[in-house]
Amino acid sequence: MSAVQILKKIKKRTFTAVQMVKYFLLASKAAHTETNCITEVLMETALARAKQLDQHYADTNELIGPLHGLPISIKECIQLEHTYSTWGYASWIHSKPRDKTAHIVDIMLAAGAIPIVKTNVPQTLLTPETSNLIYGICTSPWNKSRTPGGSSGGEAALIASGGSPLGIGTDIGGSVRIPAHFSGIFALKPTYGRYSLGLLGHTDHGNRTISAVFGPMGRATEDIELFMKVAQEYQERVDRAMPPLVWNEQITSSSGPLKIGYVVNYDFFEVSGSCQRAVMEAVDALRRRGHEVTLFEVPRLSDAISYYFELLTADENHNILSYLHQEYLDPSLAKTVGLMKINRRLQRFALGLLSLIGYTRFAKTNSSLSTNKTVLSVWKYTHAMGQDVLALVAGTFLYNVINFPAGIVPVTTVKQEDIRPRTERDLWDKAANRIDANSQGLPVGVQIIARPFREEMVVRVMKEIEQALPFNDILPIRRRLLNFQ
């Protein structure tokens, strides 16, 4: 049941807010048992708030707001008063609970939502998997040997498992989109500057070249749209400095023909067979609906890798290294942090060594850059995770660099015929072959991109693809407890 459907049933008094909170607390517990997706359970405050909302509705016959009684989940790094935000840093394990709440959470509270849990993150928030030494490893609900992605991996695992109808993640390079793609759910990264980001929470306070944004994550496009609409309508209550924009429902409900470009491959790395098929299935679906869909090639995407990491680590990793000083490192970060600490002469040597041992494309991507920050970050996003994530991340973080809104729609699952061993030119290809092996059944999504401040267009196309290719109808997620359909 989608968040929109839940809210309709609460309004009709089919269910109460208390019933919904109890259900999702139980469902989230079951999800956590399988995936280790939760960091904190907010049972007492959630039930107390649900009782207040039910009493208000009974007394006044009016809802608090458009999200009245809806349970939601929140990524661990996002500030919420009286809860913990360690961002996966073991050295922050003894930090006090937060005394403030992020603007986006205040907006959701004002609209009537009820936070029930906070969810797992990777150490530093900068890796596309979810693992840290405080809460442990979060696994995919589809396959425990796989990752749900990162850095909003806890949110993705929880929502895909049916433990939350709607969640709030953050995205600085794909951190809501990668987990959504890995986990078979929906997500959207908005344009930086459209929504208030006050007290959102991110590791690198000193770097504003690329800023994190919040991103809704859910089980249906209508839930993503609801979240974005509420955030737009309510944000003046918490941040009057934001531009007075409105959510344009004429765009999201329009059915006129569009001109759409599609990308099926990269200039520096061959996309997996399942991802190529997913794109073409979406293309065919859009063409059947009367849209003009044309092949588009992203020029010099490999250069964007260098630019992104140069911007992201503009302080030469000083903040990250200071946070990691004298603390144990998660295994996925150990090599990366070790490389961050070496001097520039050794960094150039490392670049040459990477080329010699088979990381030719790593070296080529970074050959024009003299500092360590890009070389090491590229290593981090590929080798340290033991999977081919660089190609994936390049296709997501590009839209953080140029500040375009981007959404993810699940389309299909990997089929055996998609798994085609590629010629092993270097270690990237070897890693890709290892990852593709036994990947059948895992979810595959497509990314929808529009120009800045055109989130409505992203949502419109997401809706059309979801309607044409209803992924939730084939979800193999095991259902537990009660069925509220």
UniProtKB/TrEMBL annotation:
**Organism of derivation:** Arcella intermedia
**Pfam family of this protein, just one?**
Amidase
Keywords for the protein's UniProt record, in alphabetical order: Hydrolase
Q: Which GO terms describe its molecular function?
A: amidase activity; fatty acid amide hydrolase activity
Task: Indicate the segments forming the Amidase domain, all copies.
Answer: 20-458
User: What protein name is recorded for this chain?
Assistant: Amidase domain-containing protein
Mind telling me which PANTHER family this protein's record contains?
FATTY ACID AMIDE HYDROLASE
Q: Which InterPro entries match?
A: Amidase_CS, Amidase_dom, AS_sf, Endocannabinoid_amidase
Q: Which SUPFAM superfamilies match?
A: Amidase signature (AS) enzymes
